[in-house]
């Protein structure tokens, strides 16, 4: 029902030329692209200004420093995450849980530098440290509610302790999947086809944590979805 993911390589900010975007928006778009492609620690404000073909002074007119750029990108990332975390379905199904993971990984892919460079960002940026912890808590809450919904509808069988462990495991795998893939294939991290496959695997492997707890038709539905998604 949900086709294999096609995780795009373009930045979250659209590149339309009509109407022309303001310099501030163009700086954010390019910064996201550079951070995603090369890693945030390897990109300086001078690199961004040079790629923009503007002076460093012009860049600093819009942003005080690189952390200011990162914080603005993180604000946009939070808004996208709120879209999926803010309104979990009241009555969950296997398809709802699958769609949740699919959408979550799409957002992770668009802002992948946050996940690839997470430890460095947490150590050096207080805003990211504080807000990312809140996002993790929200992710766990929504994941727990989805699992509880599956349990209440009879699609999942787990006691409270197992359900809590399942919630934690799903959040951990989703958070660190890109880091795992980067360690496996650091020189192919910017290859769109390779990383599209990697993110598809991430969705599948994350959901396999749920699979052992599914019952009856729900287990068969998971197998069907996985077969279609991983073709």
UniProtKB/TrEMBL annotation:
Q: Name one Pfam family in it.
A: TetR
- Asked if the record carries the keyword DNA-binding, the reply is yes
* Range of residues in the leader sequence: none
Q: Which organism is it from?
A: Piscinibacterium candidicorallinum
Q: Where is the HTH tetR-type domain?
A: 21-81
Q: What is this protein called?
A: TetR/AcrR family transcriptional regulator
The alphabetical list of record keywords is: DNA-binding
Locate the region Disordered: 1-21
List the stretches of this chain annotated as a DNA-binding region.
44-63
């Amino acid at each position: 029902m949900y086709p294999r993911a096609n995780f795009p390589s373009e930045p979250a900010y659209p590149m339309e030329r009509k109407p022309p975007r303001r310099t501030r928006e163009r700086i954010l778009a390019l910064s996201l692209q550079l951070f995603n492609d090369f890693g945030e620690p390897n990109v300086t404000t001078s690199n961004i200004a040079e790629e923009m073909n503007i002076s460093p002074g012009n860049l600093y007119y819009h942003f005080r420093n690189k952390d200011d750029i990162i914080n603005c990108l993180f604000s946009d990332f939070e808004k996208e995450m709120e879209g999926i975390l803010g309104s979990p379905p009241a009555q969950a199904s296997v398809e709802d849980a699958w769609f949740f993971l699919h959408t979550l990984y799409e957002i992770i892919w668009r802002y992948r530098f946050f996940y690839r460079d997470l430890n460095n960002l947490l150590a050096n940026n207080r805003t990211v440290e504080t807000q990312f912890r809140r996002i993790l808590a929200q992710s766990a809450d929504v994941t727990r509610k989805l699992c509880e919904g599956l349990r209440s509808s009879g699609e999942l069988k787990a006691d409270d302790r197992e359900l809590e462990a399942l919630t934690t495991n799903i959040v951990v795998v989703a958070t660190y999947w890109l880091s795992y893939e980067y360690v496996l294939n650091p020189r192919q991290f910017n290859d769109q086809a390779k990383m599209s496959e990697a993110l598809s695997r991430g969705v599948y492997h994350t959901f396999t944590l749920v699979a052992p707890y599914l019952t009856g038709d729900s287990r068969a539905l998971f197998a069907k979805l996985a077969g279609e998604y991983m073709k």
